[in-house]
Amino acid sequence: MAGRLLFDVTGQLQWYANLRNASGIQRVTEHILGSTPIRDYTQLEFIARAPGSAQFFRLAPQAVLALCDNDRRRSAIARLRGTFAQAMRHAPFFDCVREVRYFDVPYLLAGWAHLEGAIARLNGGELSCPMPALAPIVPPDATDCFLNTGDFWCHRRYVDSLLNLKRSTGVRVVVLVHDLFYLDNPEWNHPNFDDFAAQLKKLAPHVNVWLVTSMFVKSQLQAYLKTQAIFDSDVRVLPMGGGLLTLQRPLSSNEAEATLHRFGLVREGYFLSVGKIEPRRNYMALLDAFAHVRSRGVAPLPTCVIVGQDGWKSGKFRARLRATANEQHTVKWLRDVSDRELSILYSNALFCVVPSVMEGWGLPIRESIAHGVPCLASNAGGAVEAGKDSATYFDPSEPESLAAALSAWLNRDETLKIARTWSAAHRDMRGLGSWELTGKAVLDASKYPC
């Protein structure tokens, strides 16, 4: 039976209040919501939670879907920022104050002053498009589905609000889990976020369907659920995709050249590594391996380009780049690039490196493959499921393994030539899945059992 799909975009709303470019969970979410099966579903509703409130409200579909469209994205973010301000007065004032963070205070003040339209216009929204009033969702029932795409743990009291909705309406809950690193490595969790383990424990008994990014995450989740005496959970592995957002127009050669010039790069004059700067990404090991190759006098070397936002516990990485003048001007750190710019960086890279000590799946691995560029990847966690036999792997627990593999490819020996030729020829023949299949699987999971 097909009921409503309440696609929760609370995470996108809060993320874009202060940032313009997506990170991992946000990017996967936008790939899913931009897929044809999701967009064409006639009973789709985009919803979000007001900060400090137990209430969820409806968002205009065009404002959310425009995030996936490069030509409308700026205006979409402007409108979401106005909506975020407006949402601030949809909760008791002091509950809202207790939940928001310091950087949300301007939105809190603007919302209570009814200045959400000004917020939208100041951020590039359309001057002639007034902000619609927020309306709460029509109460769901057991045939409807509430979908969270993986950020339930980031937002204070979010789980409490979701459980209140389920208890009062019987709505089915589907949750996407990208990884479970924080259970074994709580030090990786940013202190601004609520405790991951506590949030998961509270939520777990009430989830109807779990979606996971890999068999590795499925095994981890099933093991965790058994510790909570939950034995019959419906856990499904999503077929994950790669490449451009569905609604984006194709890249032009002029656009690619202009983007590379702006970043001070040339085609095939660099290798690429993508991911937020945080401990599990293992960037210090990548810098060490690259330094080892340079010490052997290999020349000319390509630039090492690292694309990633400044994350939790990035101090050592930042200090090293400062102390070494960006590794003697051989490393470029690009902190904030758009999805479109990232696609250009992938397409024109000599190769990609994913050095992580742990991956739930490995979005950069799959994206590299989708762009026809060879990938040198860690074999940790679910990474091999992302790359299958289309990537070259090393063991991140053995630093010399990364150094040896990187040295071989940086010397541009025959192995790299073969990898580049094979990757370019097989980029569209992998059978590795697509975001269209991801959207269909999400939709299938959301439907009430017959």
Account of the protein in words:
With 450 residues, the protein is an alpha/beta fold. It has two domains: 5-241 and 437-446, no CATH class; 253-426, Rossmann fold, CATH 3.40.50. It contains 22 helices and 13 strands. It has helices at residues 10-16, 24-33, 36-39, 61-65, 73-87, 93-99, 105-112, 116-122, 158-169, 181-184, 196-203, 215-227, 253-262, 283-295, 315-323, 325-329, 339-347, 363-370, 383-387, 399-410, 414-426, 435-446, and strands at 5-8, 44-49, 56-59, 145-148, 172-177, 209-212, 234-237, 270-274, 303-307, 331-334, 352-354, 375-378, 392-394. The strands form three sheets. It has a seven-stranded mixed beta sheet, with helices on both faces. The longest helix is centred in the first third of the chain and has 15 residues, at 73-87. The chain is globular. The model has no long low-confidence stretch (mean pLDDT 90).
Short description:
With 450 residues, the protein is an alpha/beta fold.
Walk me through the topology.
Blueprint: E1 5-8, H1 10-16, H2 24-33, H3 36-39, E2 44-49, E3 56-59, H4 61-65, H5 73-87, H6 93-99, H7 105-112, H8 116-122, E4 145-148, H9 158-169, E5 172-177, H10 181-184, H11 196-203, E6 209-212, H12 215-227, E7 234-237, H13 253-262, E8 270-274, H14 283-295, E9 303-307, H15 315-323, H16 325-329, E10 331-334, H17 339-347, E11 352-354, H18 363-370, E12 375-378, H19 383-387, E13 392-394, H20 399-410, H21 414-426, H22 435-446
Parallel strand pairs: 1-2, 1-4, 4-5, 5-6, 6-7, 8-9, 9-10, 11-12, 12-13
Antiparallel strand pairs: 2-3
Helix pairs in contact: 5-7, 5-8, 14-20
